[in-house]
Predict the structure.
Amino acid sequence: MSPDRAPARRPDDEGRRAELIAAASRVIAEHGIAAATTRRIAEEAGVPSGLVHYWFSGKDELLEAVISDTLVSIEDAVRDSRAQPHDDDLAPLHQQLLAAFRIVESDDRGRQLAMYEMTTWALRRPGLAEVARHQYESYRRVAAEGLEAAGVDPESDPALSALVAAVFDGLTLSWLADPDGTDPEAVLRLLAKLVAAARVSS
Amino acid sequence: MSPDRAPARRPDDEGRRAELIAAASRVIAEHGIAAATTRRIAEEAGVPSGLVHYWFSGKDELLEAVISDTLVSIEDAVRDSRAQPHDDDLAPLHQQLLAAFRIVESDDRGRQLAMYEMTTWALRRPGLAEVARHQYESYRRVAAEGLEAAGVDPESDPALSALVAAVFDGLTLSWLADPDGTDPEAVLRLLAKLVAAARVSS
DNA sequence: GGTTGATTTGGTCAAGTGTCCAAGACAGAT
DNA sequence: ATCTGTCTTGGACACTTGACCAAATCAACC
């Protein structure tokens, strides 16, 4: 009732939350979501375990924050990877696809794996299905942006963005599971070729 | 040393194992791999929990068996779905892809989700990475068979099978995470169109 | 300096975990 | 009927889990 006379939180307000989120993120990337216990996360962050339940209502809220956080950083990374219209002799779409996959290859494998773990984890919690839905919606949006940057109109076929996003997601998982048997560059080259050919012939 | 004078196990020898594997499979499909505890699996199978460690060296061996088992049943299902060269007016490849995805749609969502959970789970266990590798190798092989059945030579571009497999895998996960935002049929139609166009123009 | 409320600490709690085992039940061979 | 080795049972073990809390600490303000 009284006017907020700013008893307010310390300056590290969001700082502590971010710290714990980052710690949880590291634990999950390194040892999997199953190993991400509140204790281990607190230990990784270098704080007593009680803090987790002070800054988060529970483990679920923390993990949900990790997912949102990770998703944003993925979006940023993909957007940053946007290949400039190179003077290369490769088709723009081909360049774009390769540039985007390079961030997958350069990133930590554990982090890639973690994203799939978090997706399935979210899909198992009734309240968090929306998070997973948002994630895959975002994938399609980013794919559409990439297509546009490569000079392909994503509106020409609404399924095109979805196709590219699916190829990326499936290819990444295949590459994680079977690195030697998966040739991402060849698959993306083929995809670029197919899209280019269809544009010419239609 | 003594000649096996068949003290041998009861006739339900493999039966018990299969029972437990099936029970574990159901639990995982319904509640996720995290909920697949030895006790819950035993309860689902209707046997005392001690049995699990009599027939399996531990939880890991049981789950590994579940993965192998599930993988085989997926391969079989996809092969069974093989669309006969219909008198339809759809291109054979288009038919094939739709028929294959129909088994995804008709199957339990939990089971689909479980496959991704088991893949990431296997990739986290040092000794079980091979299982995941085999899984994705199998996906490509099945895709190649499907292509061949649709009159497309998988050898024309070795990446073609990998592309189709990746699209399927990514599309399935996208469909699980965002059913309303994902239009599998449109994506597969586009894929079929792209492949067909490239074959004509090359 | 004292007050206030946010933050931190270290510990406790009940519930659940994988694993193991001694005792029993059982089917078939003798 | 007796024996033998397989299978089954129910409980015990040591340990981890998420959650919770009373007390201690701290920074800002009067």
Residues 7-10, 12, 16, 47-51, 54-55 of chain B lie near DNA strand D (CB under 10 Å from a C1'). Chain B touches chain A through 54 residues (CB under 8 Å). Chain B has two domains: 9-56, 60-201. Residues 1-8 of chain B have pLDDT under 50 and may be disordered.
